[in-house]
Structures are given as C-alpha cells and as structure tokens.
Amino acid sequence: MRKFSIVNHYKIFFSITIIFLCVGIGSMLFRGFNLGIDFTGGSIMDLSFQKPVAVAEVRDVLKEHDLGNSIIQLENSDGGQTSKGVLIRTGVIDDEQRRVVMDDLKGKLGDFDIQRVENVGATVGGELIQQAILAIVLSWFLMIAYITMRFEFKFAIAAIIALIIDVMVTLSYFSLFHMEMDSSFVAALLTVVGYSINGTIVIFDRIRENLKIHRRSESMSEMIDNSIWQTMGRSIYTVGTSLFAVVAIFLWGGDTIRNFAFAMLVGFSSGAYTSTFLAGPMWLFLRGKKAGE
C-alpha cells in the first residue's frame, strides 16, 4: 500500500503553520500575556489558624475570588497534609479585596491570627528573563554547531527553524488562552527545546543513512518520505509515552503545576508535528530541491 506523501503535501502543513503563527503573533502583540505573580509581584498573607487546614481547602476559598493560582505553603516540617500555619501569596490585590478574602477564609475555615500581611516584588526579574532568553538562543547556536559537524549546515538550519516554531506555538497558546505564565513556564520552555530537537535529529539521522544508499530512480522527496515513515513507529511510541505522563500531570497534578504541564503538552505536540511534517521538507528546500524531485 502506497504511503501518504508528507513532502508532496508540504503546502498544507506549511499553510497551517503560517496561519496559526500569524494568529499567535497577533495575539502576543495586541493581547499580550497573562504574567503571574512571579513576574508582577503580589501580596503575602501569613495566617495562623486555630485548627489545621489543607492546601485544597484554602485554594477552594481563593478560587471564589479568582485567586485559584495563588501559591499556598503550609508551615510545617513533617510534610503533613494539614497545618495551622499557612502562607498565601496572591497576585496584586487592594486592601478591600484582601479584607473580603480574609473574611471569607475566616467564615469557612475558622478563626486565625494574622502573622504578616505585605506586598512583595516580583521574584523573576527582568535580568532572569533576559538570561532565560539568552540560554535558549545560545542553545540554538550550539545545536547549529553540533548538527553541522554531525550532519551538514542545512540540516542544522532546518532543525532550528522547527525549534523556533515550537517555541512560538507554545507562546501563542498561552497568549490566545490568556493562561498565567510563571517561573515554571521558563523551565517548561527549556524542556520543550531539548525534547523537540531529539525527534528531528532521529529523522535527520535516517535521512542521512538513506542518502548513502539513495538510488537515482528514487526522488529526494520519496527518500525523505521513506525516512519519515521508517521512524514513524519510534516517534509515535516516544511522543505517546511522553504525552501520557504530561497529560496525567495536567489532569491530576494540581493547580500549581497545571500551566507548567500545559506548556509541555503544547510544546511536545508541536515538536512532534514540526519534526514529522516540517523539518524534512524544509531541509529539501534548503538544498534547492522541489517536492517531487
């Protein structure tokens, strides 16, 4: 049975990618991002309840005031699930909203003593953000150097373009859905970069091996398609097992790491897409060939 030609249908995949990136970039420019308290600063409420409370109980109350993504820490040293001492870090709220929240906590969880209430600055400063961007860009240059040595320069350029698309897709989703970005998002983005390049390298390695035994009767497009399909089983198993773990974290990992898991879910999915449907055709065009040749 003749397999579906990915290279000959490159216009479909390129068009989908370009349309989505245009929408995402437009959202980033005009809507921006929903930066979390790590980037914007916030308020701290250090409370000592008369009876032990659990993180889930506190978060349920905060959700009613649109503060469900707040950082909640129990002040205990034995790792228990409940504690009388609770440290709550929310986004920036005014005195009136803070009073309403504390009244609601007292009404539903019992009386407490206020140990500390104050506004705090951002924990992730501009310098750290610049360092994260620098780390991503530096990793791209190092990957270009490594792939050029192992394969060729055109392989490296195609792989980096695919990586840039993965990063832009992840950023676009967070902008479009206005999901909160915190310090864990930076870690997720770096994880996506490392994961996505792996799938692309596997396909490029197979293309390189098939180039050595390439027959004149077989076009370059057919050779790339065969290379992609020869690694398809491995790609499905790798992506499937990775997504299984990430989806489990997203569904049952709790509110504090849900956005982190979502960033990896989007990034891993995008990485599988770019590695399979974009990287090979891009390498072909960088060599000055057209689909079918």
Explain what the structure shows.
The protein has ten helices and six strands. It has 293 residues and is α+β, with helices and mostly antiparallel strands. The strands form two sheets. It has a four-stranded antiparallel β-sheet. The chain has a two-stranded parallel ribbon with strand order 1-6. Helix 5 runs parallel beside helix 7, helix 7 packs across helix 8 and helix 7 packs parallel to helix 10. The radius of gyration is 24 Å and the shape is elongated. The protein starts with 9 loop residues before the first helix and ends in a 7-residue tail after the last helix. The model has no long low-confidence stretch (mean pLDDT 86).
Oligomer: single chain
Q: Report how far the terminal alpha carbons are from each other.
A: 22 Å
Share of helical residues: 55-70%
Widest β-sheet, arrangement of strands: 3-4-2-5
**What is the helix/strand order?**
HEHEHEEHEHHEHHHH
User: What does the main sheet amount to?
Assistant: 4 strands, antiparallel
Low-confidence runs (pLDDT<50, min 5 residues)?
none
Mean pLDDT over the residues: 86
Count the beta strands: 6
Overall morphology? elongated
What is the fold's blueprint, element by element?
Blueprint: H1 10-30, E1 34-35, H2 37-40, E2 42-54, H3 55-63, E3 71-74, E4 82-90, H4 95-109, E5 112-120, H5 126-150, H6 153-176, E6 180-181, H7 183-212, H8 220-230, H9 232-252, H10 258-286
Parallel strand pairs: 1-6
Antiparallel strand pairs: 2-4, 2-5, 3-4
